[in-house]
Amino acid sequence: MAKILHPMAGATALVMIATFWISTVLTEVLASHASVTVIKSAIPWASCY
What we know:
mainly alpha
C-alpha cells in the first residue's frame, strides 16, 4: 500500500506546485494588478482543500 500511495502523493504535490507556479508567472506577465491579487489570494486557499 505504501509503495503505491507515496508516489501518488508525490505526483499530486508536484502537479499542485507546478500549477500554482505557472498560474502565478502567467498572471504576473499577462494580467492586471487585480488579477495578480486574486491569484495570490487563491493559492493559500486552494491548499486547504
